[in-house]
Amino acid sequence: xxxxxMGTDDPRMSKIVIHNGVVYISGQTDATTTDIQGQTQNVxxxxxxxxxxxxxxxxxxxxxxxxxxxxxxxxxxxxxxxxKWVDPENKPVRFCVEANMAREQLLVEVQVTCAAK
Length: 117
Description:
Blueprint: E1 3-6, E2 16-19, E3 22-25, H1 36-53, E4 61-68, H2 71-85, E5 93-98, E6 108-115
Parallel strand pairs: 4-5
Antiparallel strand pairs: 1-2, 2-3, 3-6, 4-6
């Protein structure tokens, strides 16, 4: 049984943990744009990068957890971006809930668990 931790510069967490053939990534956010679609695109690009660093891809995602700041305002725009990004042949199980975010400008956070290749 091996556990690999990557991206450990943050004193609070690892960006990636690989354990028993499963890749876990930390929740990803983006504050470089102020709209839900832009933030979702940037967050999903970060997810892609972390999965690539771990040696896997979105085609192997098992679960996705999504938090949005305002479900009534942001759900549709986030889903438009998500639906274009997700592998249509390998959709994960997913939940999406409204949540108070850690910083005022954040509109969405995404965390995934993925099978290692």
